[in-house]
Design brief:
Layout (H helix, E strand, L loop, with lengths): L4 E6 L4 H16 L7 E7 L5 H15 L6 H8 L2 E5 L5 H18 L5 E5 L6 H10 L11 E6 L6 H14 L5 E4 L6 H11 L13 E9 L8 H26 L8 H14 L7 H5 E11 L2 E3 L17 E7 L9 E7 L6 E8 L18 E7 L3 E9 L7 E9 H5 L6 H11 L8 H19 L7 E6 L5 H8 L9
Helix pairs in contact: 1-2, 1-12, 5-6, 6-13, 8-9, 8-13, 9-13
Length: 494
Amino acid sequence: MPQPCNVVIFGASGDLTFRKLIPALYNLAADGDLPGAANIIGFARREKSDETWRTELKETTAKCSRSGLSEEIWAGFSKRIYYHVSEFGDAAGYKALAEKLDALDAASGTRGNRLFYLSVSPTEYEGIFNQLAAAGLNDAKIGAWTRVIVEKPFGTDSATAKALNECIAKAFQERDTYRIDHYLGKETAQNIMVLRFANSILEPLWNHRYVDHVQITSAETLGVEGRGPYYDKAGALRDMVQSHLVQLMCLVAMEPPSSLSADAIRDEKVKVVRALRRLEGDGVGRDIVRGQYDEGSIGGKQVPAYRTEERVNPKSETETFVALRMHVDNWRWHGVPFYMRVGKRLAKGGAEIAIQFKEAPGVLFNTAEAPLGANQLVIRIQPDEGVSLRLQCKVPGSTLRIEPVKMDFHYGTSFGKQSPEAYERLILDAMSGDATLFARRDEVEEAWRYVDVIENAWHASENPPPLCPYASGSWGPKEADELLSRDGREWRRM
């Protein structure tokens, strides 16, 4: 159960705080899930009062909250919001914060529990951790707890990820460190383990004997949307594959954990990352396609090429699209390719996992008008969360015609209520001390070791694979289609 605590948000004036964090906390309060004794303290450099910050937050929460805004609920919720002005490197500011938290503990019964949320650039992490430790704010009081939530990116390669983790470890123990990946907070992502391990009709088929291949897609119609300086240094591989998509792959490919404890589940996930086949020699050019969007049309509107976007290097070699063929070298997945693709300015937005089963022997139905298709299980992560299963059925009539039909499950219609936003679930889990949906140190570092090989082949080799252009509004470069067609397969149409 979530426990009373003080939530301190570093970077309180930032976009993430306004669009995601405060609306998430408000929705938790509206649903009755936020502990009655819980306060929110914003830590930022800009001068403003409690009331000024509350007014600003109310305006954006009304726009961004999934449930709208109730004046009555906001009136009670906003009384628990405070603003603390300080530079991130100012020791006096942390001393004053410690005094404020002690006063709130005494006044509201938060029991000395603290949850620090770093909604800031990773370049600020070291200074903040050093100041928290110097002020004694990283040490939990007797009978209380102190935890920290860290936003991605968790480094830019294995070396920086390791250095970041060592920096965190100087102030917080691993059990108190929560590396947040909002994809894992989505309802359908959470349901993958239940779907696999609570349904006896699926788990016996979840292996190389019955699965032909797996596709994981994350598509956006948007471009970089003003994030040019960040994105031009990161690219699709670092921004999405290393974190979001590898995490989803782990949930699909992992073995059954010994229990539902956080470490039992994460032990199995890290085994998947360690089992990923490392690429060597020309393997990067053979198994990975990188692309960059050109100008085109989306929704009838002309959009610019990536290199002409605001604050993007006009000669940029940064990829906005990646397609990968990956293999998990263990018994369960021997010979089963995992195809991933992620891209911006694509024809349609959404994220899904498609499990393509092997085709049934066709000898019984070789007189049918069309060849048999394969069964397919699709797990929709966003926007329409749900699961669908494609089956082969006979079309009514005197001739033998077989066509695919879908059994479809939608969260919204099946349960009659909205799924909570990802940040709601993840913040609540951190308050409860449940780290299941958060990345562990070894997971992060292993994923970076896999990605480093690819990045080095792209940027540090004398003969890098080509950067393939694609028109905005398409499904990516033709080379991504060829990646599957060489295996006799094709991308699933979303």
